[in-house]
Design brief:
With about 700 residues, this protein is an alpha/beta fold. It folds into 3 domains: about 350 residues, TIM Barrel, CATH 3.20.20; about 150 residues, NAD(P)-binding Rossmann-like Domain (Rossmann fold, 3-Layer(aba) Sandwich); about 130 residues, FAD/NAD(P)-binding domain (3-Layer(bba) Sandwich). About 30% of the residues lie in helices and about 20% in strands. Strands 3-4-6-10-11-12-13-14 form an 8-stranded parallel barrel, surrounded by 6 helices. It has a 5-stranded parallel β-sheet with strand order 17-16-15-18-28, sandwiched between helices. Bound molecules: adenosine-5'-diphosphate and iron/sulfur cluster (SF4). Iron/sulfur cluster (SF4) binds next to helix 11.
Length: about 700
């Protein structure tokens, strides 16, 4: 095994955090995952795998301390009474099994929550509408409420200590998400008593809670503070000058400062809008004001960047949520001198959709994420092949590449054949658009890993026909030939095709992705509702093209609310002068003119357009697959036992789903259908 590069030694030095010591500087900061109390075994296994992969500290997601902070329908953790303890004990046990520290982020969400299930009135510094249900107001906390709130923290902390946690957080970050932060913000804290008004008064509750936690559990647990130093709202919100005063006031009280920017869409900045280490300028002041360890995040995947942050005194601990999701074994890979094998996070934020939509998180780069317990998938270990049979994979998009890699890990002989000059499929095509550059890592990581494998033969510029495939003599065939964008406007909104005159200029998305950008005034019609229409709009507009973005939805790129991209997209497109038209569908397309129809009432309008790019739906490229099925009687003579369609060619979906499909194919090859479809169900432990 290769040895660690001594340059990275600072990442492996132990550090004292209050009464605890962490074995290294890899710190998985609290992050939601859509599992929490509803899928507790899956959550615990996932955290344990990260500890196994070398993260010295592994934290929970936010953990509600009381029924008056009921985050339903989101799926997070709870510590309302002792009946929640088994879930926590399970997670702590999994983390401790690998000698890592377990941290818990206690939270009360104040006016963020409307308490859908518990039906309790929401709490707030002042009387204002709740975020989750704006018609429902949170009530201003009385002195008794404040006393009770402090008690809730202490009770939860004592339970957390009982569960075995090493680090217990007070949480005042992510903007309006937490009650402790709501008290700090003068735009929400309009109190006239000793908890409102001056900065000292607004900080009072946070100081009291920190002191309460220290008194209650500080003898054996570290007390951490997660604090957002800037909301990026200018003088409207928290910014550096005030944050400096707050850090100055509380400097030595917590045992650890976990600092970031708010709100969440700025903290977990999509790669399209921010790069690795992007928070440094905001957080670097903190270490100058405290002697306590400081952890910060920045989608760190490069060990050189990590070491630089530590050596330059920016932070002491490398905080990570997304990099630890994309590669739970990132620390061990650095430790073993295998940093070139790190599966780097691409900053797509598919993972955050698990929180928004309350399902177990998935990751574009890591197909095992969320499946560690349910399907028994480990990010590093995989069962060896049942036989020595060979597999031909046709198409090297994300599905084909991942299938090849996982099959190679299992010990199969793999032939990977790609029609184009480059491996990567849609990933290479889409990352030709500048904003998506980091997403190339999906292809780059797998292409590099495959180049190291003796049992994989890869061919580019090799479009296979059905005849070629039948003659290859491989035992198993995977067809991963992807999908193509339709040009006839059929999709969610239009089940029938739209009338288009002969001289209209319709440009397919695939043409654009091949670099053929239309000239003149371009209308992009988005009935896809995810990222790509907005990326094409951004690319064209930033090179001077006049762009109109039309969508039948009431909001552009509406699904990107789940990936924290939407607010950034709204700003970017407006800054670039893109004209945005919502609630309109296409009625017909003529030369230099598009007729739009309102989605609600029968009104029409016209927009000038020299070219139209429709993003409505994709057609699976399944001709090869269907032909092979038709010629099933020839399989036996050619030694073929199975033909499987995977990824977009089976059902067009996200890149994450294509990677998952490739991985699943590799994991389940030669299994019976019962074995292949098996998953464990969460019964009994979590629940409401
Ligand atoms: P997925 O997301 O399912 O992986 P992609 O569209 O990204 O799908 O990738 C499919 C890949 O398959 C593309 O790179 C395409 O060039 C390749 N391909 C399509 N047809 C053939 C073929 N007949 N032979 C080899 N490769 C093919
Ligand atoms: Fe990174 Fe995307 Fe995976 Fe999230 S889903 S960890 S952003 S690669």
């Amino acid at each position: 095994m290769a040895k660690r590069n001594p340059r990275f030694d600072p990442l492996f030095e132990p550090l004292q955090i209050g009464p605890k010591s962490t074995r290294n500087r890899f710190y998985q900061v609290p992050h939601c995952n859509g599992m929490g109390h509803r899928y507790p075994r899956a959550m615990a296994e996932m955290r344990g795998v990260k500890a196994e992969g070398g993260w010295g500290v592994v934290c929970t997601e936010e953990c509600s301390i009381h029924p008056s902070s009921d985050l339903s329908p989101a799926t997070l953790m709870r510590l309302w009474d002792d009946s929640d303890l088994p879930v926590h004990e399970l997670m702590v046990e999994k983390v401790h099994a690998h000698h890592s520290l377990a941290g818990i982020q206690l939270v009360h969400n104040g006016f963020e929550v409307a308490n859908y299930v518990t039906r309790l009135p929401s709490l707030s510094p002042s009387n204002i509408p709740t975020e989750n249900f704006p018609h429902v107001h949170a009530r201003a906390m009385s002195k008794t409420d404040i006393h009770d709130f402090r008690r809730m923290h202490v009770d939860a902390a004592l339970r957390a200590k009982k569960a075995g946690y090493d680090i217990i957080y007070a949480y005042a970050a992510h903007g309006t998400m937490t009650l402790l932060y709501q008290f700090l913000l003068s735009r929400y804290n309009m109190r006239t008593d000793e908890y409102g008004g001056s900065l000292e008064n607004r900080v009072r509750l946070l100081r009291e809670v920190l002191q309460d936690l220290k008194d209650a559990v500080g003898d054996s647990c570290a007390v951490a503070l997660r604090f957002a130093v800037d909301e990026l709202l200018g003088s409207e919100g928290m910014q550096k000058s005030e944050a400096e005063d707050i850090v100055g006031l509380l400097a030595e009280l917590p045992d650890l400062w976990d600092v970031n920017v708010a709100a969440w869409h700025n903290d977990s900045m999509p790669s399209r809008f921010g790069s690795e280490g992007g928070q440094e300028d905001y957080i670097s002041f903190v270490k100058k004001l405290t002697t306590k360890p400081v952890v910060g995040v920045g989608r760190f995947t490069s060990p050189d960047t990590m070491v630089s942050q530590i050596n330059r005194g920016v932070i002491d601990l490398i905080g990570a949520a997304r990099p630890s999701i994309a590669d739970p074994f990132l620390p061990n890979k650095i430790d073993e001198g295998r940093e070139d094998e790190i599966r780097e996070c691409i900053g797509c934020n598919m993972c955050t959709s698990g929180d928004y939509l309350a399902y177990p998180m998935r990751c574009t780069q890591n197909p095992t994420m969320g499946e560690e317990w349910r399907r028994g998938w480990h990010p590093v270990r995989i069962d060896k092949a049942a036989s020595k049979e060979s597999v031909l994979i046709v198409g090297a998009g994300p599905a084909g590449l991942e299938a090849a890699l996982a099959l190679s890990d299992r010990g199969y002989d793999v032939i990977l054949s790609e029609a184009r000059k480059q491996m990567g499929g849609r990933v290479i095509a889409e990352t030709s658009l500048t904003p998506l550059a980091d997403w190339r890592r999906v292809a780059d990581h797998r292409t590099y890993m495959l180049s190291q494998r003796a049992n994989v033969q890869s061919y580019t510029d090799s479009a296979l026909t059905t005849k070629d495939i039948l003659e290859t003599q491989a035992t198993h065939i995977a067809i991963a030939t992807g999908s193509k964008w339709r040009c006839d406007f059929s999709g969610l909104q239009h089940q029938q095709t739209v009338p288009v005159s002969d001289n209209a200029n319709i440009v397919s998305v695939d043409d654009v992705l091949n670099g053929n950008y239309p000239k003149g005034k371009v209308l992009i019609y988005d009935d896809d509702h995810y990222y790509l229409a907005s990326v094409i709009a951004e690319q064209l507009a930033s090179t001077g093209t006049q762009v109109t973005l039309v969508t039948p939805a009431s909001d552009i790129a509406s699904w990107t609310h789940n990936t924290l991209e939407n607010e950034h997209i709204q700003i970017r497109l407006r800054e670039l002068g893109v004209e945005i038209i919502c609630n309109k569908k296409i009625s017909r397309v003529d030369d230099k003119k598009v007729t739009l129809a309102c989605v609600y009432i029968d009104t029409k309008s016209e927009v000038a357009a020299d070219a139209v790019i429709p993003l409505t739906s994709r057609a699976p490229q399944d001709t090869l697959y269907n032909e092979l099925l038709e010629q099933q009687d020839e399989w036996n003579d050619n030694g073929i036992k199975s033909v499987t369609a995977i990824g977009d060619c089976y059902a067009p979906a996200t890149i994450a789903m294509a990677v998952y499909a490739g991985h699943e194919f590799a994991r389940t090859l030669e299994m019976t259908p019962e074995e292949a479809n098996f998953f464990r169900r969460e019964l009994g432990l979590g629940g409401e």
